[in-house]
Write a structure and sequence with these properties.
By secondary structure, the chain is mainly α. It has 2 domains: 109 residues, no CATH class; 30 residues, no CATH class. Strand 3 and strand 4 form a beta hairpin.
Amino acid sequence: MKPLIGWVKGRLIELFTYLGAFDIASEYQIQMLATRICAKYYYWTPTELDFAFLSFANGEYGKLHHYNHDRDTSVINPQDIMEALGKFDKDLLEERGRVEEEKKRQEEAKQAAKDANKPHGLEAWKLYCESHGLDPATHRIQSVKLHDVNEELYPERDENGIIKRTIDKIKRKL
């Protein structure tokens, strides 16, 4: 998490410098903001974090520093920044939901198109019967020789208990 905090700290310094507020932000404020951002918004991707800082620089989530008329200085209120991040998070989650819904609709449309190409009705039944060894006319399993079934259930074994067919297969490969 330390590398991420360092990256966020760098982005905060860049943002405050761009806004002309770097001189009024203390090292402690920047460090604590970076730590809180990483702890609270751990599920954001680096791209989303980067977009958040770009949005703040563009003023899309309000002003991040305020002019103090009494002292003729500007101040940074970390609570305003965390509030702006909360608004960004809300917008981000709504956008993620919209994108997921769109993907889901596209997948459902692909599946519907795929299903439309599959056979239906009698043709589907015939294919099912063929794949499961059923006679489509009688709906019964085709006859099986009892000898073959017994061979499968009770295979011949040699004196060591090894199935003879396995030995025969090995001999054929040699």
